[in-house]
Structures are given as C-alpha cells and as structure tokens.
Amino acid sequence: MKSRTTSRIAALLLIVLCATVSLLAQSTIENFLARSDGRAITIEWRSAQETGISLYEVERSPVNQADFKRIGAIPARGAQQAYRFIDENALVASTSGGNGSVQGGSVYIYRLKIIDVNDKATYSNTISVSHTISSVRRTWGMIKEMFR
C-alpha cells in the first residue's frame, strides 16, 4: 500500500515538474517587422517576455513556396531586448531563381524559430516583405552569378 502511494506521489511530482519546465520556456515577440532598402532586407523584433529561450533562428521562404530555410541565428539576450537581422542574401535569392532568370522584385516570407534551452522549438507568426532590386544591382547580381 505504501509503495503504491509513493508511486502516485512520484508520478504527480513528475507531472508538476514537466508542467513547470514547459512554462519556463516562454517568449513573447512584439513588433516583428521586415523592410527592404533595395539592397538587403532588415528583420527586427522585440522580446516582451523571454524565459528559458536560448536562440532565435531566422527563416525565409519565397512567397510561392511553403518550405522555410534557416538564413541565420541570434542568441537570446533576455526580455525587453531589441533584435535585428540583416538578410544580405535576398539580392542573390532574387537574382538566381534556379532557372537562370532574373527577377526585378520578389516577395519573401520570414518567421522566427524560437528554440528553448531544451532544444524544443516554437514558431512566430510570419511576415512578408516585397524586395525590389534596382536595375544596377540586378545587373551586378547577374554578373556575380555567372562566376559562381
């Protein structure tokens, strides 16, 4: 009888511990924005709440695809912190569509993969940005792609 009661108490403590650990890893993202300057895309966000978070991975997807690819990562610094990631490869992604064609403008979708200290991931909402490249930059991008 004593062993059954001890087992129940141990199971209850384990459930409470698991619930506490899952509550420890929390992040609230505010002001998640992306903007293009014709050269690069700047992604910015602020963490209103950041407990048990170790890393933010920035992911990008072209608007016509559903697969996101990791393009960078920033270590978590604590609540009320502002973060900025500059996607300088958006020019390359716009100029090489995989088929050798050059696009003058593209729409990209970004999201954050929020990784906690236990390597569990959650995702932010997505944001989109239109990235229009000047004809000079587009031509330069084509020249660079020829030599890759």
Oligomer: single chain
Number of helices: 3
Gap between N and C termini: 73 Å
How many beta strands in the DSSP annotation? Answer: 8
Write down the CATH topology.
Immunoglobulin-like
Shape: elongated
CATH class: Mainly Beta
Percent in helix: 25-40%
Biggest sheet character: 5 strands, antiparallel
- Provide the β-strand percentage band: over 45%
Explain this structure:
The model is unreliable at 16-24 and 94-103 (pLDDT under 50). The N and C termini lie far apart (73 Å). The strands form two sheets. Strands 3, 4, 6, 7 and 8 form a five-stranded antiparallel beta sheet that branches. The protein contains three helices and eight strands. Strand 6 (105-116) and strand 7 (121-123) form a beta hairpin. It has 148 residues and is α+β, with helices and mostly antiparallel strands. It is elongated, with a radius of gyration of 21 Å. It has helices spanning 2-24, 90-95, 135-146; strands spanning 26-36, 41-51, 53-62, 69-75, 81-87, 105-116, 121-123, 127-132. The protein has one domain: Immunoglobulin-like.
SSE map:
Elements: H1 2-24, E1 26-36, E2 41-51, E3 53-62, E4 69-75, E5 81-87, H2 90-95, E6 105-116, E7 121-123, E8 127-132, H3 135-146
Antiparallel strand pairs: 1-2, 2-5, 3-4, 3-6, 6-7, 6-8
Give a short overview.
The chain has 148 residues and is of the alpha+beta class.
Defining traits:
148 residues; five-stranded antiparallel beta sheet; Immunoglobulin-like; three-stranded antiparallel beta sheet; 3 helices; single chain; alpha+beta
